[in-house]
Amino acid sequence: MKYPIVLHTDNGVSYGVTVPDVPGCFSAGDTFDEALEMAEEAIFSHLEPLVRRR
Length: 54
Known about the structure:
- The protein has one domain.
- The protein contains one helix and three strands.
- The chain has one helix at 32-52, and strands spanning 6-8, 15-18, 26-29.
- A three-stranded antiparallel beta sheet has the order 1-2-3, with helices on one face.
- Strand 2 (15-18) and strand 3 (26-29) form a beta hairpin.
- InterPro entries: HicB-like, TA_system_antitoxin, TTHA1013/TTHA0281-like.
- Residues 3-51 form the HicB-like antitoxin of toxin-antitoxin system domain.
């Protein structure tokens, strides 16, 4: 599945990531690319326990 993410930065150096469709799921990275990678990992880590319950 694909989820929209919101990337934000205050200094143009490090990035925060919020996943609006997955409450409580957020991440960060030192670069834009790292922030995207960490967002994918955060979504997986956040949803994995829900999938295991089935």
